[in-house]
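dumping this here so i dont lose it
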């Protein structure tokens, strides 16, 4: 059943910052330009990689010592999330000079409805896309990929087809030919499990997917994938959402000490505060957490890091306290001086999810306890401590815990 549709019933543009965090650092610090650069030093793993660094085989999640083996002269930097936010705001400001209908999908990508703007700009949709691309490049110094099509799903696939600095236009009459070269596993929203299911049904490309009759396909699909089928066929199922969002791919918290320390209790207390702060921010924006990355930073600026992944996303770190402590103790070395601890939470998902079986124990009271905490900023879980200084001659006064919770 071929898909035949008018070329431009609507025109949606997808703007995607290429290697955004790394590109921002290169733009803000010209001495980094055109050099292999990796962001994520504070986490001990690569979170963003410049295209120059990718040429050496460096990939996301790779640890710093692995990166140095592949590229000894690679520049390793800590993420500056305030700077990333400023660049993001400026990018969307530029996009809004072309269209008032803009969706900030994430910090480095967004959508805009440019339907009917060819006449006001005296330009084709492709020319409008290239103008936006050039404006962002000229103003911010970062590479942008552009995709233009008749739905959000098609526009995003188009922008992903050419990186960096690509501009791909897919009018309605070219949908089938464009999707014929897109593997089903590369379609936005289709994960490995769904791709495996579709492959068993004889669907190998996005074109196979849209040409499969709904009566044969839909019994196997939930609503999001049915909507995707319609979107890839050119029917708008997801309108541009112009509401301002607070969306995050990850949330981080790091604290550097005034004086390096070997004190295990103090380090554990500081790490717990960072964990609590990350989870509190995640809850504030309605997220549950599936991945947690913890690190200790030594006085020699060496990072000792590890990650945890929960089979069921969590909202309350108290329920996983034993696991966090075991992880900390595995990283901690008694004779090493440390200058910082940190936590990053990722794999964020919206909604109040059912917690694991821990909530069937006394941990079931955790949601109520946290609600009490979040209404009172002077309550902690005993993570603020009185700690003796290393020579035990003086005592450093850390904030006294107002409440220690037993569950």
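and the seq i came up w/
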């Amino acid at each position: 059943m071929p898909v035949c549709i008018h070329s431009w019933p609507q025109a949606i543009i997808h703007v995607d910052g290429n290697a955004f965090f790394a590109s921002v650092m290169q733009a803000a610090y010209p001495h980094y330009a055109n050099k292999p650069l990796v962001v994520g030093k504070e986490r001990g793993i690569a979170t963003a990689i410049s295209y120059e660094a990718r040429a050496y085989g460096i990939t996301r999640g790779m640890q710093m010592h692995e990166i140095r083996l592949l590229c000894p002269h690679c520049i390793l930097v800590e993420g500056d999330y305030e700077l990333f936010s400023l660049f993001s705001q400026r990018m969307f400001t530029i996009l809004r000079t072309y269209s008032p209908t803009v969706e900030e999908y994430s910090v480095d990508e967004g959508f805009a409805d440019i339907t009917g703007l060819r006449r006001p700009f005296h330009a084709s949709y492709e020319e409008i896309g290239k103008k936006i691309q050039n404006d962002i490049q000229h103003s911010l110094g970062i590479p942008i990929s552009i995709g233009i099509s008749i739905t959000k799903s098609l526009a995003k696939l188009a922008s992903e087809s050419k990186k960096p600095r690509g501009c791909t236009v897919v009018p309605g009459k070219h949908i089938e030919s464009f999707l014929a070269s897109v593997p089903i596993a590369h379609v936005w929203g289709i994960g490995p499990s769904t791709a495996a299911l579709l492959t068993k049904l004889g669907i190998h490309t996005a074109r196979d997917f849209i040409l499969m009759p709904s009566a044969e396909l839909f019994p196997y699909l939930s609503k999001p994938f049915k909507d995707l089928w319609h979107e890839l066929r050119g029917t708008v199922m997801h309108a541009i959402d112009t509401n301002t969002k607070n969306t995050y791919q990850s949330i981080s918290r790091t604290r550097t000490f005034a004086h390096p320390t070997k004190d295990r209790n103090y380090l554990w207390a500081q790490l717990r505060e960072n964990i609590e702060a990350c989870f509190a921010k995640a809850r504030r924006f309605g997220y549950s957490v599936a991945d947690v990355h913890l690190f200790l930073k030594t006085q020699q600026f060496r990072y000792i890091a590890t990650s945890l992944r929960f089979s069921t996303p969590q909202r309350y770190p108290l329920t996983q306290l034993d696991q966090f402590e075991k992880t900390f103790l595995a990283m901690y070395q008694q004779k090493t001086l440390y200058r910082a601890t940190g936590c990053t939470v990722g794999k964020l998902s919206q909604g109040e999810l059912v917690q694991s079986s821990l909530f069937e124990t006394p941990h079931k009271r955790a949601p109520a306890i946290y609600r009490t905490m979040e209404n009172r900023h002077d309550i902690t879980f005993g993570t603020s401590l009185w700690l003796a200084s290393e020579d035990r001659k003086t005592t450093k006064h850390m904030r006294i815990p107002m409440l220690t919770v037993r569950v």
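Confidence is low (pLDDT under 50) at residues 353-362, 376-407.
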